[in-house]
Amino acid sequence: MLEHSHDRGFPLLMAVGVSYTKVMKTNCKRCMIASGTKTEGR
Asked: What tens digit of pLDDT does each residue of 5-40 get?
């Protein structure tokens, strides 16, 4: 399940305090946007 195209963004989200499980439950598009923003803000 962690084999997402943006799985690399999960670690960052977890560091922020967001459960990757909750992100995965969300639509992939939404997750990609969230992880993408976090990665860019990196």
From this structure: 555 555 665 556 666 556 555 555 655 565 555 544
3-state secondary structure of 7: coil
Q: Which two tokens stand for residue 18?
A: 């967001």
Residue boundaries of the structural domains of the chain = 9-41
- Tokens coding 4: 């997402």
Q: What's the start-to-end Cα distance of the chain, in Å?
A: 24
Report d(CA 25, CA 12) in Å as an integer.
17
Distances (CA, A) of 33 to 2, 3, 38, 40: 16, 17, 9, 10
Q: Is the pTM of this model over 0.70?
A: no
